[in-house]
What we know:
Layout: E1 7-11, H1 17-24, E2 28-34, H2 37-46, E3 54-56, H3 59-63, H4 70-73, E4 82-85, H5 107-119, E5 123-129, H6 136-147, E6 152-159, E7 170-177, H7 183-191, H8 200-204, E8 227-232, H9 239-245, E9 252-257, H10 263-271, H11 334-340, H12 353-361, H13 366-377
Parallel strand pairs: 1-2, 1-4, 2-3, 4-5
Antiparallel strand pairs: 5-7, 6-7, 8-9
Amino acid sequence: MIKKEYTFVDLFAGCGGLSLGLEHAGFKVVFMNEIVETYASTYLANHNLEEGQYFIGDINELNCNLDKYGDVLKNPRKPVTLVCGGPPCQGFSMANRQRIIDDPRNQLYKAFLQFLSEIRPQFFIMENVKGMANKFNEIIANFKEYLGDEYLYDYRLLKVQDFGIPQNRERFIMIGNRVGVAPDRIFAEIEHYKRPPFLLKDALFGLPHLEARKEKNKGEYESAECGFTERDFSYPDTDFYRFINGDRIITKLYNHKNRYNNLRDIEIFRRLPQGANSLHESIQDIMPYKRRNNIFKDKYYKLDENQICKTITSHMKYDCNMYIHPWEARGLSPREAARIQTFPDDFILKGAQNSWYAQVGNAVPVKFAEVIGRSIMKFL
């Protein structure tokens, strides 16, 4: 008996965290769209897609050329099961009186709706910042405008730490379908996957020691002290290793590389105790923002190994002063950030080192995406 194939399209795909989780849940990616070439190169390095199964560019341009990809996107013999994406949407605050869909900052949100109306998958997932919940009634009206009454949809604000991920991250998750499944049933299924989170020390344990790089303008420089883009490595077998990697034995370490820090920052990193920020007495004699400490109280923050991590964000591409390693005088490496986002250890980040941080910070945690995918799969 031939096993039925459930396919999906990932829009605004980034480096592919959402896609990877859905693949782990049993879905097969057949198409992706991403506008940033570096992010797309990472995606394609980690997913098996051929020419004609991806579009690197503006989604509005894709929407104007969907027939070019008709064999994949509009094939009645192989209809797309699921479309997912997190369209950038900035004009959704309660203070903004303009309709979301009319706000020029939200043209990508409108393009997402346009794509759904053309492809009409069985299910869709829209992931976004929790502020989207402020105007959910308006969002429903937008979806009805583009999709009619064929779909049922609802949302939840979900905390990824409730599903084992060692990070404080709350996201807006909207799920819709046109196969008659009450959204409450899907979200109830998601609840079944709740479990206590791993701690930060679980995600960092066993990775090689690194030191902060003290010389500027050596982006390609690699060493045992400062780290490598790729090296042979034997991982300790821990519960967290199995959580993100399953039963696979991985023998390479990727993107575990530190960045430049000046000597003052390194000394601040060294002095701060875990869980302390810029206001701590141990660094007041060398703090660079003394007169504005209340504003910059979190300019420096040393993570606590016995807690979950604060939200991994794309700001890490600028500096990791708010993500100081709990027991080493440096910021987190891109690999450590990727582990906190539950990327498997053989996931390779492409591009420049600062871009590695941005890609990871913008991603959906892989194991969180897997939970959503497995929950939807129960209704297929």
